[in-house]
Amino acid sequence: MTTNPSADAPLLLTRDGAIAHIRFNRPKVLNAIDSASAAAFLEACKSIAADASVRVVVISGEGRAFMAGGDIAQFRDDPASIPDTLIGPLHEALQILAALPAPVIASLQGAVAGAGMSLALACDLAIAADNVRFNLAYVNLGTSCDLGASWSLPRIVGLRRALEIALLSDAIDATEALRLGLVNRVVAADALAEETQRLAQRLASGAPIAQGMLKKLMRAASGNDFQTQLNLEQVGFATCSATSDFAEAVDAFLSKRAPHYTGR
Q: pTM of the full predicted structure?
């Protein structure tokens, strides 16, 4: 997997062992996403998907915000470009991330608005600083949502609450975000990077085949009937129990030692 060496790039892709970091890098505009950063995000996701050694993906934003939504300047200057050069690449990228066996963590601070909130909702887990402020915000620009918000938000908070969040676009602080299940945990702002890394390392040390199967099962469950899901669970367990990692986990448990997973 390649990394982006330019500190001025709209997005930075770096590696820390088995952890891949995608960091939006337009802090002067609160990481508002434009066509260039959308294209870079898609390329980063493709690069990660092609690297089987990646066990965890962390998505974050440089500066005081995760992402304040789409770039309003592009909305004003070239609205016709938005569906194909902005939304299209972002949707392709999110499909790649959803299909990855690796868990995807959103590390959030400050403004998480519009496309930023949709992106955060699309991740598998979310950790937030106590200064985070969510706002779906699309209706404030006279438009509907993108990046899967209409799929993920009702599944996280329920239909009526999702409609309230979407139609009223009130700001949601960290305490309320945690209560609603928009994030998994809230930490002090100055501890966000450290706590995100601790969570990522914990996941990276886990059994990657089992984690990938659990992610696949959980993401498929809402579209399946009970019998179909039971069948998928049986197949999934059979797949995992045939791996070396399963044998290692059983032996480690019986030997009262920590397991070492190889992803095989």
A: 0.94
